[in-house]
Amino acid sequence: SGQTGSLAITANGGGLITYQWQKYGSKKRTWMDVEGATVSTFEVSAMGSSDEGTYRCAVSNGPSTKISKSAKLSMYVPPTFQTHPRDYKMMEFSKLTLKIKASGTPSLAYQWQKLGTDGVTWADVSRANKSELSFSKLYKVHAGNYRVVATNAGGTTTSNEAELVVYYAPRI
What we know:
The chain is mostly beta strands. It contains no helices and 17 strands. The chain has strands at 5-8, 18-25, 30-33, 41-44, 53-60, 65-67, 71-73, 77-83, 88-91, 96-99, 101-105, 109-115, 122-124, 132-135, 144-152, 155-158, 162-167.
């Protein structure tokens, strides 16, 4: 998103070869010429969602025209968080789910992490790879700071930290 995207074609033949890139309009179900796209490389300087789509190139040498196979031009949208995990103060043995909401293209992979006792190192939480981190029963050991890392081909983004405080009864 926001970076250069391009498609290129190589053609040969007799005479002067001309190019016309076309984009498929799914609403009208027709191919439409892309204005100004008349060279062998079709380039978009700052990719946006309106630039995504299926393209092809009409190559002509005057007496004949050939149409290339179509190609899809799409972009990666790095992960962004709409909501971050929030802090909780819960009683031991309670049920809790930490949640986030994130978006990006292609779809995101998640990994929840917990801050280590050294206060510096983050460790992956085992089998915690969804947008929610659920505890069916909280224990003292679950107390700490949590965050989630969202990743896709567009990049990696880390959520804000959430502090989980677990109150527990004294043990004798």
